[in-house]
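Review form for a predicted model. The reviewer records the input and the model, then writes brief findings.
Reviewer: anonymous (R2)
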Amino acid sequence: MSRWLEAACGALSAGAYGHFREDLLPICPIPVPGCLTRELTFAERCCRDREADRLFPIRFYWLLEANEQRLGDYPAMGYSRYHPEKLLEFWQQAEAVPAFRAEKETEGFRFDFEEKAVDFTVGWIYIGDSFVDDLICIEETIGVELLFPTGDGDTTQSIFRDFKARRKRGPA
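Model under review:
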Protein backbone atom coordinates (compact mmCIF):
# COMPACT_ATOMS: atom_id res chain seq x y z
CA MET A 1 0.00 0.00 0.00
CA SER A 2 2.73 2.50 0.97
CA ARG A 3 4.67 1.93 -2.24
CA TRP A 4 1.53 2.35 -4.32
CA LEU A 5 0.71 5.59 -2.50
CA GLU A 6 4.24 6.93 -2.97
CA ALA A 7 4.05 6.14 -6.69
CA ALA A 8 0.59 7.71 -6.91
CA CYS A 9 1.66 10.91 -5.14
CA GLY A 10 4.77 11.14 -7.31
CA ALA A 11 2.82 10.70 -10.54
CA LEU A 12 0.17 13.23 -9.56
CA SER A 13 2.71 15.80 -8.36
CA ALA A 14 4.57 15.42 -11.66
CA GLY A 15 1.40 15.92 -13.69
CA ALA A 16 1.46 12.35 -15.05
CA TYR A 17 -2.31 11.97 -14.77
CA GLY A 18 -2.59 9.58 -17.71
CA HIS A 19 0.04 7.27 -16.19
CA PHE A 20 -1.77 7.42 -12.87
CA ARG A 21 -5.22 6.72 -14.37
CA GLU A 22 -4.07 4.00 -16.78
CA ASP A 23 -1.27 2.25 -14.89
CA LEU A 24 -1.60 2.94 -11.16
CA LEU A 25 -5.31 3.34 -10.50
CA PRO A 26 -6.19 -0.18 -11.77
CA ILE A 27 -3.76 -1.76 -9.29
CA CYS A 28 -4.79 0.27 -6.26
CA PRO A 29 -4.73 -2.13 -3.29
CA ILE A 30 -7.95 -0.70 -1.78
CA PRO A 31 -11.26 0.54 -3.16
CA VAL A 32 -10.58 4.12 -4.30
CA PRO A 33 -12.49 6.68 -2.21
CA GLY A 34 -14.55 9.10 -4.31
CA CYS A 35 -12.67 12.09 -2.91
CA LEU A 36 -9.48 10.86 -4.59
CA THR A 37 -11.27 10.57 -7.91
CA ARG A 38 -12.59 14.14 -7.53
CA GLU A 39 -9.06 15.42 -6.83
CA LEU A 40 -7.76 13.58 -9.91
CA THR A 41 -10.57 15.00 -12.05
CA PHE A 42 -9.76 18.51 -10.81
CA ALA A 43 -6.09 17.96 -11.70
CA GLU A 44 -6.88 16.70 -15.20
CA ARG A 45 -9.16 19.68 -15.79
CA CYS A 46 -7.15 22.49 -14.20
CA CYS A 47 -3.50 21.49 -13.68
CA ARG A 48 -2.30 20.80 -17.20
CA ASP A 49 0.77 23.06 -17.20
CA ARG A 50 3.26 21.21 -15.00
CA GLU A 51 5.34 24.33 -14.40
CA ALA A 52 2.65 26.94 -13.76
CA ASP A 53 -0.27 24.86 -12.51
CA ARG A 54 0.89 21.70 -10.81
CA LEU A 55 -1.27 19.78 -8.37
CA PHE A 56 -0.45 19.27 -4.71
CA PRO A 57 -2.43 16.02 -4.14
CA ILE A 58 -3.29 16.65 -0.50
CA ARG A 59 -5.96 13.93 -0.26
CA PHE A 60 -3.50 11.33 -1.53
CA TYR A 61 -0.97 12.59 1.01
CA TRP A 62 -3.59 12.27 3.75
CA LEU A 63 -4.17 8.68 2.64
CA LEU A 64 -0.42 8.02 2.75
CA GLU A 65 -0.13 9.61 6.20
CA ALA A 66 -3.16 7.69 7.49
CA ASN A 67 -1.60 4.45 6.29
CA GLU A 68 1.73 5.31 7.95
CA GLN A 69 -0.04 6.28 11.14
CA ARG A 70 -1.90 2.96 11.10
CA LEU A 71 1.34 1.04 10.58
CA GLY A 72 3.70 2.95 12.82
CA ASP A 73 1.94 5.64 14.81
CA TYR A 74 3.54 8.47 12.82
CA PRO A 75 1.84 11.88 13.09
CA ALA A 76 0.46 13.54 9.97
CA MET A 77 1.87 16.56 8.07
CA GLY A 78 5.08 14.91 6.97
CA TYR A 79 3.83 14.92 3.39
CA SER A 80 0.69 17.02 3.43
CA ARG A 81 2.52 20.04 4.93
CA TYR A 82 -0.60 22.06 5.70
CA HIS A 83 -2.78 21.60 8.76
CA PRO A 84 -6.26 20.92 7.30
CA GLU A 85 -8.14 23.12 9.79
CA LYS A 86 -5.81 26.07 9.12
CA LEU A 87 -5.96 25.47 5.38
CA LEU A 88 -9.77 25.47 5.40
CA GLU A 89 -9.81 28.58 7.59
CA PHE A 90 -7.43 30.32 5.13
CA TRP A 91 -9.71 29.34 2.22
CA GLN A 92 -12.89 30.49 3.97
CA GLN A 93 -11.34 33.82 4.87
CA ALA A 94 -10.19 34.35 1.28
CA GLU A 95 -13.72 33.56 0.09
CA ALA A 96 -15.42 35.88 2.57
CA VAL A 97 -13.04 38.82 3.00
CA PRO A 98 -12.02 40.63 -0.21
CA ALA A 99 -9.26 42.61 1.56
CA PHE A 100 -7.67 39.41 2.88
CA ARG A 101 -7.89 37.82 -0.56
CA ALA A 102 -6.32 40.89 -2.21
CA GLU A 103 -3.50 40.91 0.33
CA LYS A 104 -2.79 37.22 -0.27
CA GLU A 105 -2.89 37.70 -4.04
CA THR A 106 -0.21 40.40 -3.76
CA GLU A 107 1.83 37.82 -1.82
CA GLY A 108 1.58 35.44 -4.79
CA PHE A 109 -1.36 33.23 -3.84
CA ARG A 110 -3.88 32.44 -6.56
CA PHE A 111 -7.50 31.50 -5.95
CA ASP A 112 -9.94 29.71 -8.20
CA PHE A 113 -13.37 30.18 -6.67
CA GLU A 114 -15.16 28.39 -9.48
CA GLU A 115 -13.12 25.21 -9.03
CA LYS A 116 -12.60 25.87 -5.29
CA ALA A 117 -8.82 25.63 -5.15
CA VAL A 118 -5.87 27.70 -3.96
CA ASP A 119 -2.36 27.80 -5.39
CA PHE A 120 0.35 27.65 -2.74
CA THR A 121 4.06 27.44 -3.55
CA VAL A 122 3.77 23.63 -3.67
CA GLY A 123 0.97 23.73 -6.24
CA TRP A 124 -2.80 23.86 -6.47
CA ILE A 125 -4.67 22.45 -3.49
CA TYR A 126 -8.18 21.38 -4.33
CA ILE A 127 -10.56 22.43 -1.54
CA GLY A 128 -13.79 21.46 -3.29
CA ASP A 129 -17.22 21.29 -1.71
CA SER A 130 -16.49 18.53 0.80
CA PHE A 131 -13.03 19.17 2.24
CA VAL A 132 -13.85 17.99 5.78
CA ASP A 133 -15.92 15.04 4.58
CA ASP A 134 -13.05 14.04 2.29
CA LEU A 135 -10.61 13.89 5.19
CA ILE A 136 -13.10 11.85 7.24
CA CYS A 137 -13.64 9.50 4.28
CA ILE A 138 -9.89 8.88 4.13
CA GLU A 139 -9.77 8.22 7.87
CA GLU A 140 -12.64 5.73 7.53
CA THR A 141 -11.03 4.04 4.53
CA ILE A 142 -7.79 3.36 6.41
CA GLY A 143 -9.42 2.90 9.81
CA VAL A 144 -7.53 5.54 11.77
CA GLU A 145 -8.26 9.05 12.93
CA LEU A 146 -5.46 11.25 11.62
CA LEU A 147 -3.57 13.08 14.33
CA PHE A 148 -1.99 16.44 13.56
CA PRO A 149 0.45 18.49 15.63
CA THR A 150 -1.08 21.01 18.00
CA GLY A 151 0.08 24.62 18.33
CA ASP A 152 2.86 23.69 20.75
CA GLY A 153 4.19 21.05 18.35
CA ASP A 154 4.81 18.56 21.16
CA THR A 155 1.44 16.84 21.06
CA THR A 156 -0.99 15.66 18.42
CA GLN A 157 -4.74 15.53 18.27
CA SER A 158 -7.58 14.70 15.92
CA ILE A 159 -9.01 17.54 13.87
CA PHE A 160 -12.47 18.80 12.91
CA ARG A 161 -13.70 17.34 16.19
CA ASP A 162 -16.82 19.53 16.39
CA PHE A 163 -17.79 18.57 12.84
CA LYS A 164 -17.24 14.89 13.59
CA ALA A 165 -19.32 15.11 16.79
CA ARG A 166 -22.21 16.78 14.92
CA ARG A 167 -21.98 14.20 12.18
CA LYS A 168 -22.08 11.37 14.72
CA ARG A 169 -25.16 12.85 16.44
CA GLY A 170 -26.98 13.15 13.13
CA PRO A 171 -29.40 15.84 11.97
CA ALA A 172 -30.84 18.11 14.65
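Findings: The first helix runs from residue 2 to 13.
Further findings: The longest strand covers residues 117-120.
Recommendation: see findings above.
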